[in-house]
Write a structure and sequence with these properties.
The protein contains 20 helices and 13 strands. It is α+β, with helices and mostly antiparallel strands and 420 residues long. It has three domains: 102 residues, Winged helix-like DNA-binding domain superfamily/Winged helix DNA-binding domain (Arc Repressor Mutant, subunit A); 196 residues, 2-Layer Sandwich (Alpha-Beta Plaits); 63 residues, no CATH class. A hairpin with a 7-residue loop joins strand 8 and strand 9. Helix 1 packs across helix 2 and helix 9 packs antiparallel against helix 12. The longest helix has 15 residues. The chain is globular and about 70 Å long.
């Protein structure tokens, strides 16, 4: 094992985490977070691990750790949510947790007597909310691929023969199609509780996970297992509270739904406080108002969690279509039914699978080369990461690969290479 010490070791850890699917800009607060969460040996292991999904033997070869010691370290990291172990092809495969969705969420979902939740909440709050470096690093250049997308509430979309709400846009359909369910603490709400900024009466236990994600959370005691009925009841409770449903930004095998309020959610505050509307991908709908039936009561403007509805001089509401999430929270509050969701002129792009989402996230954020050349200890991989990374970061190249014309063929080529 290498014997890096002090801040140099954690700086290398920061560089590794920053090279994943979400950027994690380095500063003194992130250093303090890492010192709290990782032992020096755990940090050294992460620095040496492959960037992407890898089996135990690959990690042992890449890191040089003796198998018994490696097993113990990986088990400890998974128990803290700093590494994810996923059952794939009849074996556990391991993946380093990104800062979001990963380190932040799992840390503040943890239970047990060894927790230092108040201190962790303070540090994450400083890093994510007060310093604003994280949200800007991931969305200031107009990035369109967020880990989360808004779901429209069922019954809020206007009913016409030309409108079809697809299953991946329906929370109930996502729940019905799952095989296993887990509910855990909302990390954002938990954070705000401990820093004295939770203003709502929403319970903490709302975070919903399904199937493989539920398997991971339950295996490491980050959540409790619930039935399908209990999951549907959780959804009904969120409807009553007027929470925004934020799902995994994929169309197949959705792994989670967050139940978000404007006062606590870091993603929604990335829109309202920091001015990055692309922090959450919209649904395929947006709010439309029947002005003839509107009573100008102002309730829709009050309930919109991102302040996308404002009152005009005559009291009638107007919708900022560039900002509207298409979540339907406003329509739930409209007593006259004069506010409904209507289809956007152009359908919003949502990746088909988690593989596609991660690839496109990395392409937008300049880290895709790390998914190709995964071994940090190999000189050839280091060279190719630099060479390919420089090419992929060229604005014309990135724009072309993210565009409608080349995106599908680019993703299909990568799927073929990865054996998808």
């Amino acid at each position: 094992m290498g014997h890096l010490v002090g801040k140099d070791l954690y700086r290398k850890l920061g560089k590794k985490i920053d090279g994943l699917s979400m950027r994690a800009p380095w500063n003194d607060t992130l250093y303090e977070i890492f010192k709290e969460l990782y032992s020096a040996e755990e940090a050294d292991l992460i620095v040496r691990m492959p960037y992407g999904l890898a089996d135990f033997q690959h990690i042992a070869t890449a890191t040089g750790y003796e198998p018994a010691r490696l097993h113990k370290l990986l088990d400890g990291l998974c128990a803290k949510g700093l590494v994810m172990d996923l059952w794939v092809r009849d074996a556990y495969w391991y993946m380093i947790s990104p800062l979001v969705i990963g380190i932040f969420e799992f840390t503040l979902m943890r239970t047990g007597d060894d927790r230092k939740t108040k201190e962790w909440a303070r540090l994450f709050h400083t890093y994510l909310q007060q310093e604003n470096t994280f949200i800007a690093a991931n969305f200031k250049h107009g990035e369109r691929i967020s880990p989360l997308r808004a779901l429209p509430y069922e019954g809020t979309v206007e009913e016409t023969e030309f409108v079809e709400v697809l299953d991946y846009e329906k929370a109930t359909a996502i729940i019905e199609q799952a095989r296993r369910y887990a509910i855990g603490l909302c990390s954002c709400r938990h954070e705000k509780l401990h820093v004295g900024e939770k203003k709502c009466a929403v319970p903490l236990d709302t975070c919903s996970s399904f199937d493989t994600a539920a398997d991971y959370l339950l295996r490491h005691n980050f959540a409790k297992e619930v039935s399908k009925t209990e999951m549907l009841e959780n959804l009904a409770r969120s409807r009553e509270f007027g929470l925004v449903l934020c799902a995994d930004n994929v169309r197949q095998d959705v792994s989670f739904i967050c139940h978000c309020c404007g006062c606590c959610c870091n993603v929604l505050q990335g829109i309202t406080r920091c001015g990055f509307p692309n922090a959450l991908v919209t649904s395929n709908y947006l709010a439309r108002i029947d002005r003839d039936n509107c009573l100008a009561c102002g309730v829709c403007a009050e309930t919109c969690p991102i302040q996308a509805i404002t009152a005009q001089d005559d009291g009638r509401p107007t919708v900022d279509e560039e900002r509207c999430l298409g979540c339907g929270v406003c329509a739930l509050s409209c007593s006259t039914g004069s506010l409904k969701l209507a289809p956007r002129q152009q359908r919003v792009f949502h990746p088909e699978t988690t593989f596609e989402r991660v690839i496109l996230q990395c392409l937008e954020r300049g880290t895709l080369q790390n998914m190709f050349f995964v071994d940090p200890q190999k000189i050839t991989h280091k060279f190719m990461r630099g060479f390919v990374g420089g090419f992929l970061r060229l604005p014309p190249v990135k724009k072309a690969l993210m565009g409608e014309t080349l995106r599908s063929s680019f993703l299909n080529a990568l799927k073929s290479r990865a054996g998808q």
